[in-house]
Amino acid sequence: MTVTAIGTRYVYDFDDEAPGGREQLGGKGIGLAEMTHMGLPVPGGFTVTTEACRAQLESGSFPDGLSEELDDAVHRLELKTGKRFGSSDNPLLVSVRSGAAISMPGMMDSILDLGLSDAAAEGLVRKTGNAHFVYDSYRRLIQMYGEVVDGVDGRLFEEALSAAKQVRGVTVDTDLSADELRLLVETYKQIYTESLGRGFPQDARTQLRAAVEAVFHSWQNPRARVYRQLNDIPDTIGTAVSIVQMVFGNAGERSATGVAFSRDPGTGEKVPHGEFLFDAQGEDVVAGIRAPQPLEELEASLPEAYAEFQKAMDTLEQHYRDVQDVEFTIEHGKLYILQTRSAKRTAAAALRIALEMVEEGLISREEAVLRIEPGMLDHVLHPMIDPNAAVTVAATGIPASPGAAVGAVVFDADVAAERGKNESVILVRFDTTPDDIHGLAAAEGILTAHGGMASHAAVVARGMGKPCVAGCGALRIDESAGVCTIGGVQVREGEQLTVDGSNGRVIVGAAPLVTPTTNPDLDTILAWADRFRTLGVRANADTPVDAERARGFGAEGIGLCRTEHMFFGEERLPVVQEMILAEDETARRAALDRLLPFQQADFEAIFEAMPGLPVTIRLLDPPLHEFLPAENEATTERMRERINSLREVNPMLGTRGCRLGLQWPEIYEMQVRAIGRATKAVADRTGETPKVEIMHPLVAFAEELHRLRVLTERVMEEEAPGLEYLCGTMIELPRAALRAGEIAAYADFFSFGTNDLTQTALGLSRDDAEGKFLTGYLEQGVLEHNPFETLDQEGVGELVEIGVTRGRAVKPGLEVGICGEHGGDPQSIAFCNRVGLDYVSCSPFRVPVARLAAAQAALVEKGTSYEQAGG
Ligand code: PEP
Ligand code: MG
């Protein structure tokens, strides 16, 4: 190879030293190169870089020089293998396989058996004496090439194959004779010609160039786009293409192909787990065309190849220090490894594997913590069927992805995507293909009749953390009639079904579900995480029940207790309304006096649920009209009048937050009094003074907080003289962030209310944006993330940074936290860590996620990293 400048060379042999690593070679390419360097039995081949794909996508034409580089690389491969590409007596066949830097299993296209032509097929029959294998390979090539390169309708090929099997009276592809396969090849060529008006290309180099180009284009196919959107993968990175010498799992009896995991991806147990098929090619296993056999049976039939495979998996695990998902082929008893990548695993398996690898000395505790994807934790404590409920199991299948789900049966991915917007659906299919991705994403659970742990449905479901039962043999689907039978029980589309992916049970009807609250492996990982993180984690909790739940999940206090929720209780709302409708201050105070005991009791219960931990109580925030009915439901003339007088054009920016507290100070006075009395009562009762933080919302001007601080101090002095507490403010308005220095003079703490800060900094109201133009923005890529879920770090984040810096410049010890919803989002948590917040506060269920994400942020800042293998 003579071209060396980076940026002009697009092709690297597996045994080359290639610059750019995974980003250039893609996961598959880097895996093949690394395995080649490790000395594992990998077929020869080369990889076209992602840069070539980007060049093609940008310019719309095949990159300059790539054809020549492909020719050179093919020539080198010919020398290595002693075969000739396109020759008719000893043809070299290759697979052309996609592989992006970030794994996107099954989302892009690959083509096998490339290089076959009529003449090459005949030559190969002469050489191998195995016409069955040759014509089986040729018909696969015509179909894959036809579909992927030229967009021929795949159903035409499937129908021809079914017809051939029917004529012969067989159900399995391999039972077709060599002559029948030869005839099938003729039919396939006819389909190709009739669809396109030209014959199947007989020149191997023409095939190769078109195949590489088609794989580049498959980066843009709809399912790949959806997958990228679901998984936050940038659209711009493109795919690499690996060209690999074909080895044949379909070359006869001592040949096989399969996929295996070095540990069980469902449970994490340290036993290899996999499936294979004799006399088949790779796509047969994944596509679930024939029922695969468990890996153990390979040991019985081909013990030597099995032993070598075991060793290879060990080598790979040791090298990558992670569970591997390996594709292999055995040709006439000889093993080849075709791909390795870090295995997708369930959340429970991820935890167990990380823990056991620490015990085995393979990884450190820091790495174990870094390896658990925070979003996955939502699935660890996944719902299960209530163990106390009596349920009738209609059938069982393979427990392919754990958790239980209940929903309405649908048989089609489009229907699932549509109905899934408004209700829970269970997608029930014979099997799934990558084109069903949008339906899988929308479904609560998945049930298939076919396929095992490595089937498409199973792999995708585990990746998404969705319950899936696969290979349910007792399921029969009649899609056109909108009905299926499960173990003989008829279920119509729309009827309720329960699937339990933890043990494979399928139950007709809606079984009661419960959500467990602990997992010992999770507890261990989180205990390690707690040692690595520096950010505190509090919870947003308004009730004693929430507070207790938050403690259970490891919250170190309450970062936001929204008091308005206490105003809505059945006995309270009428009193609240009385207070709002009061003609004068005296009447208002009388109503508030009656509310005070309720508030006090609530606070006492919350303090007691958080002994020794800070509890941040926010005084009343929403506009008062929220406590009154709609005008046409007013029960008195006075109420109607009051509703009218409180009406605002834009209540979000109206009389709410501290503005309300300044306009009717008696409301905040009552709340502070209730806090003071509750603090004192709990201190007297338990001997431990609650750590109270009184928080004033929606402050824009320092003077607002100044006046409210005076009120707070006066009332606290009256009710709980001498007891310590903090008085602070939320930073929810851009002006507050900008003028944080002045505000800090009156604040013991800041808490960034990034929900409102996002609304006000971006000038958009959440209620008017989500589900409307914001959805369009996200679909069209105007915005990458919903700014209400993931903090807009450049905009809102800059305001946060300014607020922290200016506040602490005036008051170095100022405590600063965040209590908007972003406090539970891993990316936003990493930001909070970087800008030096003291804590994040999030919903109780997000507390474990926040603990983990905070630890990861701290570790990453310290420079600890973890790299994934393969792809
Ligand atoms: C916020 O604005 O971020 C916040 C926590 O307050 P709320 O969501 O109650 O307006
Ligand atoms: Mg707010």
Structure description:
This protein has about 850 residues and is an alpha/beta fold. It contains 34 helices and 33 strands. The strands form seven sheets. An eight-stranded mixed beta sheet has the order 14-24-23-16-17-18-19-15. An eight-stranded parallel barrel has the order 26-27-28-29-30-31-32-33, surrounded by six helices. Strands 1-2-7-5-6 form a five-stranded antiparallel beta sheet, with helices on both faces. A hairpin with a 2-residue loop joins strand 21 and strand 22 (about 490). Helix 5 crosses helix 8, helix 22 (about 585-610) runs parallel beside helix 25 (about 665-685) and helix 25 packs across helix 26. The model is unreliable at about 1-5 (pLDDT under 50). The site of magnesium ion has 5 residues, from helix 29.
Short description:
The chain has 871 residues and is of the alpha/beta class. It is 45% helix and 17% strand.
Percentage of residues in strands? 15-25%
Estimate percent helicity: 40-55%
- The chain-level mean pLDDT equals 92
Shape: elongated
Main sheet record? 8 strands, mixed
In this entry the ligands are:
phosphoenolpyruvate, magnesium ion
The separation of the N and C termini measures: 26 Å
Oligomer: single chain
